[in-house]
Structures are given as C-alpha cells and as structure tokens.
Amino acid sequence: MSAQPESVAEISEGLRAVGYLPGQSTALVSYLATRLGKPVLVEGPAGVGKTELAKSLSRYLDRRLVRLQCYEGLDEAKALYEWNYRKQLLRIQAEADGTGWDAVQDDIFGEEFLLSRPLMQAIATDDPVVLLIDEIDKTDQEFEAMLLELLSDFQITIPELGRIEARTHPVVLLTSNNTRELTEALKRRCLYLWLDYPTLEHELEIVRLHSPELDEAVARKLVEIVQLVRELDLKKPPSIAESIDWARALLLLGADDIDQQTFRETMSIIVKHRTDLDVVAERVGVKLGAKPAAA
Ligand SMILES: Nc1ncnc2c1ncn2[C@@H]1O[C@H](COP(=O)(O)OP(=O)(O)OP(=O)(O)O)[C@@H](O)[C@H]1O
Ligand SMILES: [Mg+2]
After folding, report:
1. N or C terminus of the chain with fewer C-beta within 10 Å?
2. Do 232 and 280 form a contact (C-beta atoms < 8 A)?
3. Do the Cβ atoms of 174 and 133 come closer than 8 Å?
4. DSSP string of 255-291?
5. Tens digits of per-residue pLDDT, 196-242?
C-alpha cells in the first residue's frame, strides 16, 4: 500500500527520510500534487534536484517510478505505444489461406500486438506509479499537445482499440531546464515549482547529507565558495550536483582545509568552462590566498 501524506510537514519529513531535503515550496507543491492529483511542472537551472525530486517521491510514496526521458524528435511511437509490426506480420502469415481480412484485422489490432511505452505503462498499470517526464523542453510543441489529453484526463485514445483510462492515478512530474517557453495549455494543467539554487544553510545540509564524513568547517567553506562563485558572471554556474562532487573529492584527497593550492587543484570539479576557470581563479583564488593579518 503506498503512502498518502496527511500534511506538508509529513511529506517534508518523508522526503528527508529517503535522502532528499526539500525547501518549503518543494514540500508544499509535492503535498498538493499528491492530494489534488495534479501534475507538477518543475523548472530551474541544471543540477538543482528536479529529477531527484521525482525519484525521491517514488521512494517515499512507495510507488514504482516510470521515466520518460525526452529528446529532440521524440514521438508517440517511443513515448506512448506502437504496433508490433513484426508480430502482426507473422500472425497474418500464420493464418490459413482463405481467412477473411476482417477476421485477421480484428485479431492483429488487439492488446497482444501493442508495444507499450512509458506513458502507456503509467496509465495502464494496476499499481500506482510516479511518472517522470524528464526534460520536456527538449521536445516540440506537437508532443506537448499530445500530452494534454493524458495530463488532464489521465487517458489515452488508440484509434483501433478505443480509450484506455488510468486504473490508478499516477503522480506526475514534468521537468524543464527552460530552454524554450512551454505552452500555456500545458502550464494551465500543472502545478508549478521553480527550483532555484539553495540558500547557504540549505546547501550545507545537502552537502553534509551526501558526505557526512567531511569535516564540518571544510563543508561550510566549500559551500561559501560555491555561493561566491555563483555570483560571478559565468557561462555555467556550479549547481548542487557540483558541490556534492567537490565534497566527495575533497574527502578522498583528505583535504582538511580549502586553501589556495587545494582550490586551484580541484576547482575544475565545480567550474567546467575554459573562460569560467580563468574568471574564478582570478576572483576566488586570490581571495583565498590573502593571508589573515598576523595578530
Ligand atoms: N534537496 C536535495 N536534497 C538532497 N539531494 C539533492 C537535493 N537537490 C539536489 N540534490 C542532489 O543534486 C544532484 C543533482 O540533482 P538532479 O540530477 O535531480 O538535478 P536536475 O535538476 O535534474 O539537473 P538537470 O537539469 O541537469 O537534469 C543529485 O545528486 C541529487 O541527489
Ligand atoms: Mg534532471
């Protein structure tokens, strides 16, 4: 039996218990999504925990995760269903000569010949699932339009078979990196969650959760530096994912402080553009190098 949270505090606790530290709005929107049964559109920069939220909800709610990874050119056949042409063909060949077309046709357009893809699986399954439609902004507007029937009515229409309605109501999360504006029609059907870079204390807590062995003072300095780097005008500011990687690396290297040398040696873990590296080395590296005035 899957969990059904009774309050925002409860879902917040539940997510923490499975390793995800939600901000206030994340907990609130997640709660509303489970209670109102509306899909959630999660937008925000790369690496701030959009995909992880769906995975964590699936763990907490004890529902299977069905994931549709979007990409340019994704179509219905890969997202929804397609007919298993080879099997249909074999069936037609296996029919004795003289079988009327009508009989064969009835036969080969049955569920047995359907290859169901993630969206169909999420609808047709008997056990309640979390459906993650990841990086929806990579698809085109036609694909979005196709999703509308699914997101508002939780049903799919197959011309040859008829309507397939959801047997259980999936919890749906769509994520977007905002590379293009999504349609109003899609947004109207969803709750909206903007995930941004976390505050210092929140990020420290996340880093400590992922690397509990790292010295607290080092962890704090790490997060302070990352937040400082984010304020610079960079092509790609470091995300939570980079902070976590950096903490793991420092732990492996046995660093007990982030001095100028350690920073220079490891900064490519958080900054990944040639030009950004120069900016960061100059602005942050110099700051770290400044020795405190002797007492
Ligand atoms: N609130 C959080 N609590 C715990 N871990 C988090 C949290 N937010 C992010 N993380 C961690 O940060 C990493 C990046 O998260 P995730 O892959 O979900 O980012 P994303 O927003 O989907 O990025 P992208 O847009 O690049 O796909 C993961 O390892 C995840 O565990
Ligand atoms: Mg993601």
Report:
1. C
2. yes
3. yes
4. -SS--HHHHHHHGGGT--SHHHHHHHIIIIIHHHHSP
5. 999 999 999 999 999 999 999 999 999 999 999 999 999 999 999 99
Cα–Cα distance between 174 and 192 in angstroms, integer? 10
> Which residue among 29, 48, 248 has the greatest number of ligand 1 atoms within 8 angstroms of its CB, and so is best to mutate?
48
| Ramachandran category for residue 232: left, alpha or beta (phi over 0 → left; psi -120 to 50 → alpha) | beta
3-state secondary structure of 180: coil
Q: In b/e form, how buried is each residue of 72-81, taking b as 16+ CB within 10 angstroms?
A: eebeeebbbb
pLDDT of residue 295: 43
In this predicted structure, the answer to whether residue 292 has a pLDDT above a threshold of 60 is: no
Q: d(Cα 67, Cα 271) in Å, to the nearest integer?
A: 29
Alpha helices in the chain (DSSP H): 8-17, 24-36, 50-61, 76-79, 85-94, 101-108, 118-124, 141-153, 184-188, 200-210, 216-231, 240-253, 260-266, 274-280, 286-289
pLDDT of residue 38: 93
Query: How far is residue 256 from each of residues 209, 218, 222, 226, 291, measured CA to CA in Å?
Result: 18, 7, 11, 17, 17
pLDDT of amino acid 1: 45
Report the alpha-carbon distance of residue 201 to residue 130 in Å, rounded: 30
User: What is the rounded CA–CA span in Å between residue 252 and residue 265?
Assistant: 14
Please indicate whether residue 177, judged by its CB atom, sits closer than 6 Å to ligand 1. Answer: yes
State the average pLDDT over residues 52-75.
96
The pLDDT assigned to 286 comes to: 76
**What is the spatial distance between Cα 103 and Cα 213, in angstroms, rounded to a whole number?**
68
